[in-house]
Design a protein that fits this description.
InterPro entries: M60-like_N (IPR035423), Pep_M60_3 (IPR042279), Peptidase_M60_dom (IPR031161), TCAF (IPR051244). This is Peptidase M60 domain-containing protein. One of its GO terms (biological process) is positive regulation of protein targeting to membrane. It is a single chain. The chain has helices at 135-141, 171-189, 225-228, 231-235, 239-247, 265-275, 281-284, 290-302, 312-326, 328-339, 348-363, 368-373, 380-385; strands at residues 16-17, 32-40, 46-49, 60-63, 83-86, 91-94, 100-106, 118-119, 123-124, 127-129, 148-152, 156-161, 199-204, 212-213, 218-221. The protein has 401 residues and is of the alpha+beta class. The protein folds into 2 domains: 24-248, Peptidase M60, enhancin-like domain 2 (Collagenase (Catalytic Domain), 3-Layer(aba) Sandwich); 281-400, Peptidase M60, enhancin-like domain 3 (Neutral Protease, domain 2, Orthogonal Bundle). Helix 2 (171-189) crosses helix 6, helix 5 (239-247) packs across helix 6 (265-275) and helix 10 packs across helix 11. The longest helix has 19 residues, at 171-189. The protein is elongated.
């Protein structure tokens, strides 16, 4: 079986001293990848000189950004193509059979200032960093010979095939588009504007599942590269990548798996399309036309309103009805309210009752009847706690009661 791997057309041999990387990290969600803008060709060895401050402190060197492990029956690439090596010495030699971009991996809860690394042999990669790379720098850097490129913006880093950015002249415009997207995402999530760890989208010739999937990094098929690096295409709609970024905003305290796993992430897709891109929900996705929404609602009722049928687009309808009545500000207040809570229920029934109560208190209306019409397991104690609030009697599901 033959596998594809990335061969660099030009092999460079040079002494590369990175500019001092000033870090003040307090990473809570696992490792943070720190880009170097350098690439190792397949099988190529390089010698590294590392600061004593990060030796035997949980830091690692990573070669390669495609970290999905593949178990498909038909493979386009090898099952595993990245390499991680613990930093155990100030002098190290590394290589990866498949090659790849070079990263420093900072462990969780790390505070370090002034990290400087010397890479003796490597290949320069097309690399852009907001507020650092100038237009003149980029005009030369985008021609660098590495087959993989990285665009590092304020809150997200895109890793794409270099051919996707060779002709990208106005990278500052793309940076602004992505900065606005990420700002809009945290706006709905009611989180600080600066992410504690920048999101990453990495492109691969084959990924573990789907067209894209969430995580750190978010992984996407090759075709995705030509969407996320094109401002015109983004302006026309970009449901998939926003859907995955929405997954990364989901919190278990207001998630009810498996019902909402592929549902609430779409709130971010709808919000970004409408509030930033100016694309109505009916046009943002073919499953959100008025006709399809009504048909799903009628079918859910006709099939007996079973919670087992409440998922994906059917479940999203519940949230869209809330949004169309109470607006996005209500969702922001609900999400913000959860950051003030602790000791959450762990079962879906408990979490759904907490959500119904929280949303009701935010909007000043008793929504227990609305949620019950969607077959949520609302308890009597929840109804009693909300009984002092005026009920929402003319909700969209009332016509089927």
């Amino acid at each position: 079986m033959a596998f594809q791997h990335n061969r660099c057309p030009v092999h460079l041999l040079f002494h590369c001293k990175l500019e001092p990387v000033v870090l003040l990290l307090f990473v809570l969600g696992g490792f943070e990848w720190i880009s170097t803008g350098l690439y190792l060709s397949p099988g190529m060895k390089t010698n590294l000189t590392l600061p004593a401050a990060i030796v035997n402190k949980g830091w690692k060197i990573q070669i390669g950004c495609q970290t999905d492990y593949l178990s498909h029956q038909q493979l386009i690439r090898a099952p595993s193509v990245h390499l991680r090596v613990p930093i155990t010495s100030e002098k190290m030699q590394v290589q990866n059979l498949w090659g790849g971009l070079i990263y420093l991996l900072a462990p969780s809860q790390t505070r370090v200032t002034g990290v400087e690394m010397v890479v003796q042999q490597a290949v320069l990669a097309p690399y852009y960093k907001s507020a650092v790379t100038t237009a003149d720098d980029w005009s030369q850097r985008r021609a660098a010979p590495s087959p993989w490129a990285e665009l590092e913006f304020d809150n997200i880093i895109l890793t794409v095939p270099s051919k996707a950015v060779r002709d990208l002249e106005q990278v500052d415009e793309l940076a602004q588009v992505w900065n606005n997207i990420m700002k809009t995402i945290v706006e709905l999530a009611t989180k600080p504007l600066k992410f504690p760890r920048k999101e990453r989208i990495v492109i691969d010739v084959q990924i573990s599942h789907g067209w894209m999937h969430a995580g750190y990094p978010i992984m996407g098929q090759t075709s995705t590269a030509y969407l996320i690096t094109n401002t015109t295409k983004i302006a026309g709609g970009m449901w998939g990548p926003i859907h995955e970024l929405g997954h990364n905003q989901q919190r278990s305290c207001w998630e009810f798996p498996p019902h909402t796993t592929q549902c609430t992430c779409n709130l971010w897709s709808v919000y970004v399309h409408e509030e930033l891109l100016g694309i109505k929900r009916t046009e943002a996705h073919s499953d959100l036309t008025s006709e399809k929404r009504k048909a799903r609602m009628k079918k859910y009722v006709a099939d007996g309103r079973k919670l087992s049928d409440w998922s994906v687009w059917t479940a999203l309808e519940t949230y869209l009805q809330l949004q169309e009545k109470f607006g996005w500000e209500a969702f922001k207040k609900v999400f913000a309210g959860y950051f003030e809570m602790s000791n959450f229920p762990h079962d879906n029934k408990g979490k759904m009752n907490l959500y119904a109560e929280t949303f009701s208190r935010v909007v000043g209306m008793n929504l227990s009847g609305f949620f019950k019409s969607w077959a949520w397991p609302i308890e009597e104690i929840t109804e009693e706690d909300l009984s002092h609030l005026p009920p929402w009697t003319d909700h969209p599901m009332a016509q089927y009661n």
